[in-house]
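Deliverable D2.4 — example input (structure tokens):
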């Protein structure tokens, strides 16, 4: 059995709960076979968006298109989506095989066909040997794979996953992240995934839709949203960053030029669509700690506050530009660590800094 993902397009979804606007004009396009993650903090609207796509919540406005057909008015059982929640909701009195076959039974397939297709799906998720067991006899990770198999067995148009790994410990979560990706590659399904875990989103997704306060604030590949955030929220939510404030001096060779309080100049990428400040106006840029460099002739003067060894890298905190800046480096050895109070020079490549909107 081969499951093929289909296109799912969301256009202008809105959802109100009384005076609270939970989702505001959210639009995205889940491509066939794509892994798209809705990422954001609690209350950002990501789960509400998924529930509207699944059919468990009705949008106040907007369209949900599957292969070009609007399904926003259809009940969940007629949308042909597989859904897995954080609680797997397996039937405790049924065997693993019976749990996986249940959606086929509800669709009226003959018993032999139910067993055949459920058995094939259990083989795909690596649980053929557990077909006769009951859910209570399985580990949390095995139960999660049964839930995935049940959601995939009826050949859905897409798989919707709402924080499916949230209840598992870190080591098991990391293992199952890889398993979910492997299952997706084997069956070719489109996946819409909801999480608040940045590492999970970065490691699993083809694209990430970052949400905040009910809005989709940036959509792109993991590398795009991490290296080129468009807003302070995206920059701060997706890992650690340094925010540097300066006066906008203009654009040179396609790069934004800022002057900082100590008189030094810094350059940064100027993405399409980001509002350019007025000449002399306040501007904000983001530089990730691993992109900040200790350079003998760097433009910014600083003083080391601390150095911490973290295994694969060392983390310096440097007082510069009137604030504490984080700097991560792999070019470090115990004998070469700079002590607190050491004078240093800092800098960064222009393409590694990002002028932020707002």
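Example output (designed residues):
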């Amino acid at each position: 059995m081969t499951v093929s993902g289909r296109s799912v397009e969301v256009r202008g979804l809105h959802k109100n709960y009384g005076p609270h606007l939970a989702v505001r004009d959210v639009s995205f396009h889940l491509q066939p076979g794509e892994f798209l993650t809705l990422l954001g903090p609690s209350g950002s609207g990501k789960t509400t968006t998924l529930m509207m796509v699944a059919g468990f919540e009705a949008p106040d406005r907007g369209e949900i298109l599957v292969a070009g057909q609007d399904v926003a008015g259809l009940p969940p059982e007629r949308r042909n989506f597989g859904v897995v929640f954080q609680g797997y909701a397996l039937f405790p009195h049924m065997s693993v095989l019976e749990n996986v076959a249940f959606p086929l039974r509800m669709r009226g397939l003959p018993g032999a066909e139910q067993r055949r297709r459920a058995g094939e799906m259990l083989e795909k998720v690596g649980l053929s040997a557990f077909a006769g067991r009951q859910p209570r006899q399985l580990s949390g990770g095995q139960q999660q794979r049964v839930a995935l198999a049940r959601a995939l067995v009826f050949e859905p148009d897409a798989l919707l996953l709402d924080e499916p790994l949230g209840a598992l410990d870190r080591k098991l979560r990391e293992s199952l992240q890889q398993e979910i990706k492997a299952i997706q590659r084997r069956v070719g399904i489109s996946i819409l995934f909801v999480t608040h875990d940045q590492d999970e989103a970065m490691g699993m997704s083809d694209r990430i839709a970052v949400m905040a306060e009910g809005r989709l604030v940036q959509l792109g590949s993991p590398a795009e949203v991490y290296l080129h955030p468009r807003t302070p929220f995206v920059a701060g939510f997706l890992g650690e960053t340094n925010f540097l404030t300066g006066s906008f001096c203009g654009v040179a060779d396609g790069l934004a030029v800022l002057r900082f309080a100590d008189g030094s100049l810094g350059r940064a990428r100027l993405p399409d669509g980001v509002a350019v400040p007025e000449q002399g106006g306040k501007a904000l840029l983001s530089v990730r700690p691993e992109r900040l460099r200790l350079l003998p002739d760097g433009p910014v003067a600083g003083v080391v506050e601390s150095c911490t060894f973290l295994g694969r890298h060392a983390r310096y905190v440097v007082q510069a530009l009137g604030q504490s800046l984080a700097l991560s480096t792999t070019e470090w050895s115990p004998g070469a660590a700079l002590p607190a109070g050491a004078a240093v020079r800092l800098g960064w490549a222009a393409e590694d800094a990002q002028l932020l909107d707002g």
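The first strand starts at residue 8 and ends at 17.
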